[in-house]
## 1
Amino acid sequence: MQRRQFLTSSLLSAGALSLANQKSLAWALQPGYKFKPLRNNVGIFAEQGGTIAWLVNKEGIAVVDAEFPAPAEHLIAELKKQSDKPIQWLINTHHHGDHTSGNISFKGIAQHVASHANSLANQKSTAAKQNNDDKQLYPDTTFTTEWKVKLGDERIHAYYWGAGHTNGDSMIHFENANIVHTGDLVFNRRYPFVDRTTGASVQSWVNVLQKAQKQFNKDTLFVFGHAFDPEKVTGSMADLAAMQNYMERLIDFVKSSIKAGKSKDEILAATSIPGVTEWQGDGIKRSLTAAYEEFTM
Ligand SMILES: [Zn+2]
Ligand SMILES: [Zn+2]
């Protein structure tokens, strides 16, 4: 509380508040972070960026995704309170900065970093473009279709089913706990980012979500990269079906609009997608643009 008050008063005394400052003020006023056990020693951490999943057991610690450096340090401090065992694995669901910028906080702490091979390639090419290669910690272990590792009494199983939100997204299953981190393959009830610069495909995304629903079961608990309601970063198979429905309605709408001779501007001006009622946020244009490009280029 003291720290928060300090942040508030120092921001206020900084004088005129620009929009950017108002945003950081709002951020400073938010109550810290969420560190929440789910079941079988697996839980989530959420502060800023894509949701993190963690496992702590007698043999060690595994972490899926890393948000940004400051949140990653908060997570590491929480994990150290739980166990003095090493962090054996940091696994990235995909390369985006809100999932991998915090990797660097695990330097010298995590024994290994794993991701899909495309995620590593995307992380490297993005760092080269943004000139922040020195702020990256890259995976030393990569896989292409699937990958398994045992940690104490838990088995961690990564699945890759093709392009979706990027061309390098995998889902990470803690098999005994039956908890899956979907990464950004699920934006729960929130308009998704579709990153065509690193090989995203709305068409293939549907297929990936179908495969996930076949692989996992009604007892599986899912952790989502993002959700409109911060309380809904976890959910069930029904939420994967809802995400698939969103992608299918998006595809139908954009394809039929193109067929009807609508211009790109007309299509991008849509403020809703027929059949989509639950999706919210300010990013509908990102979906429409990606689908339009995919079906016209
Ligand atoms: Zn994300
Ligand atoms: Zn992402």
Note: The chain has a mean pLDDT of 91.
## 2
Amino acid sequence: MEGRMIAFRSGVQVCPLGQGTYQMGKRRGEEIRALRRGIDLGMTLIDTAEMYDTEDLVGEAVRDCRDKAFIVSKVLPGNASYEGTKRACERSLRRLGTDYIDLYLLHWIGPHPFAETVRAMVELQQEGKILHWGMSNLDVADMERILALPHGEDCAANQVLYNMRDRGVEYDLIPWSRQRQMPLMAYTPLGEGRLRDHETLVRIARRHDATPTQVMLAWVMRKPGLIAIPKAGSTAHVEENFRSLDISLTDEDFRDIDAAFPAPSHKIPLAGW
Ligand SMILES: NC(=O)c1ccc[n+]([C@@H]2O[C@H](COP(=O)([O-])OP(=O)(O)OC[C@H]3O[C@@H](n4cnc5c(N)ncnc54)[C@H](OP(=O)(O)O)[C@@H]3O)[C@@H](O)[C@H]2O)c1
């Protein structure tokens, strides 16, 4: 996996395949085992948020391997004032049972000025409570506003909706992020599991002796700087997803995917929450 690692500008590296946790909690024991199996395999980036109600589950999953895990959490927009961001971070740290978050994101744009949220993020970073900070659901124009703020150039990452059905970010946000060596996390990379019966994906999967899910993940991770964070609730799914790192899609595969799921030919406003 070494050659495939994604580097933040800090020099910290992660596997391009991480693990989501939205809607976990219904099968807690199995989900914790799944997250731990993923970490053992090298999928150490775990994505949570104060909104998901999964921070304590993530904390339990990483209890014996905190130093290996790269925890991403998010502040809710309504809490993202200067003081509110700091308080939300303290609450997340308590629920996670850790004294630092590897990457702390603003979940999406809300009522508070970016300048307040960023000032809090910068201070949290200086205090060692977060190691990196970043944004989620921000398009190019808003990312430009972040970068123009004091310390804004320290913004480490952005997390956006990206899968075969939602390719708008290819038009500008992916190249923009790449130019700035800013990793982009692709959320809902499996289209919430709804794309896997698509005839084109089934056909491509057969060529690789793989599954449509693995093809979707290999496709998201084909671009440098992209991190896919599928949510998988079982060890079997985690292991299946991990094997997507071994798939090299061919020109024929890319042509078939482009025919079924066309790339954007013009600016498309960021999709998502
Ligand atoms: N920043 C944001 O605003 C934002 C928004 C949405 C999501 N996210 C993050 O992104 C993560 C992923 O997105 P998502 O949860 O919306 O959707 P997703 O990862 O695209 O899809 C999850 C679905 O795929 C299924 N799945 C996973 N691996 C599979 C496999 N090998 N075979 C068959 N089915 C499989 C899961 O089922 P099982 O559970 O049964 O494995 C689940 O139903 C979230 O968990 C969250 O951490 C962030």
Note: Residues 20-22, 47, 107, 136-137, 159, 187-193, 213, 229-234, 237, 240-241, 272-273 surround NAP (CB under 6 Å).
## 3
Amino acid sequence: MVVGDFPIELDTLVVGSGPGGYVAAIRAAQTGQKVTIVEKGAIGGVCLNVGCIPSKALIEAGHRAEHAQGDDELGIKTENVSVDFSKVQEWKGSVVNKLTSGVEGLLKGNKVDIVGGEVYFVDKNTVKVMDEKNSQTYTFKNCIIATGSHPIELPTFKYSDRVLDSTGALNLKEVPKKLVVIGGGYVGTELGSAYANFGTEVTILEGLKDILGGFEKQMSALVKKKLKSKGATIVTEAMAQGVEETKDGVKVTYEAKGKKETVEADYVLVTVGRKPNTDELGLEQVGIEMDDKGLVKIDEQCRTNVDNIFAIGDIVDGPPLAHKASYEGKIAAEAIAGENAVIDYNAIPAVVFSDPELATVGYSEEGAKEAGYDVKASKFPFAANGRALSLNASDGFMKLITRKEDGLIVGAQIAGPNASDMISELGLAIEAGMTAEDLALTIHAHPTLGEITMEAAEVAMGTPIHIVK
Ligand SMILES: Cc1cc2nc3c(=O)[nH]c(=O)nc-3n(C[C@H](O)[C@H](O)[C@H](O)COP(=O)(O)OP(=O)(O)OC[C@H]3O[C@@H](n4cnc5c(N)ncnc54)[C@H](O)[C@@H]3O)c2cc1C
């Protein structure tokens, strides 16, 4: 303790204000806890500042730029479409500001104290919070750690003005003429698609056999087809080896099919995964157990092996997604309040805001079989839905995974327009233990994409109306 650093006593301490931390803080306050949240950066964490929200804003702007080019098929012709990218960035920034200041207001409205600074653990009831000038000791009864993650840096691709991580790619001041994306996961594919819509010549280098590894082949195939139609090049089984920065760009070397290749671009975006922010927190001082990936081990209430310390979000196992972090935040807050909340990961949706959008919830057909379910997959194409046709966006399908014995819905996959919104109904169906019959008997408004859900359920029951059995 430094001279004059008198410890301040806290009830519940939340470390990090991303979608895990701020949601945990609000829920903890709602249960009557006196909450302090400490954030070393900007309120809202990665998600609101440099992740979900700005990326979706950029993707939307990209779609609008693409649509503005007109559509021969619909007889819409336009001329001289131009993009003022600084305006796009300004608008994106305003969306982020509205949300982050809204979250700050919500925290204050719930009487959560907000402290700026970096947390370092001293023991199981004590932290130091440091900013540039000061260090203050706090003691706490309970703590929820939600410190998130950061992009992995490859040793041969040191980040710079031309070698970008996702934050760098989101904040470009100009639309690149050419962009190389290393890593065809969801972040690389989303940002690559967004820039392709602005007219950038995009090359995606993916080390594995396919982009969007976690998704079924038929789903990623649709995204690849669309990306290629926008002039993108996708090289799979390509091992990026190094980058040379030139005066106004980069030369990226990679190996594919045993051959060394080079591709030149204005920028290279490296999105090869993220690392949990757990190694500079002093967790070893407290004896918190971690796995070999640096993820904190937790029980079904998000409690670490130290019983008054909880961990949530990107620093624990499972898909690194904002809604999963928020869900865990509520569980941890309620567990501290003595409630009987436990994690149930059965129905965590995952979405890629690509073109078309991909979404999944629950089991895939293969995953369900591996888990011992006797299931069948029932597919309904967007091309047989009136609304999809009237949107001129009929590429895609919905697949329902149901248990053979009783039609219980255990999973769903969607590739198509608005998949990101449509997946919620299926998450609810899984959560509520619904069967295909329940969905088939639910009247869906016409003409909507939602009818695809009803029709996929009818396929499962053997009674589809708009496709021949
Ligand atoms: C480009 C991009 C797009 C994404 N798109 C989506 C999407 O569409 N949907 C989705 O679900 N997910 C998306 N994600 C993932 C999502 O952003 C993360 O899963 C989510 O932000 C994790 O939340 P968190 O609360 O665990 O951590 P974070 O949001 O990372 O927040 C952690 C916070 O803790 C703070 N912190 C760290 N260490 C300390 C310390 N020692 N002391 C004090 N504060 C500290 C950090 O400054 C940060 O603000 C995206 C990510 C990226 C990069």
Note: The mean pLDDT is 97.
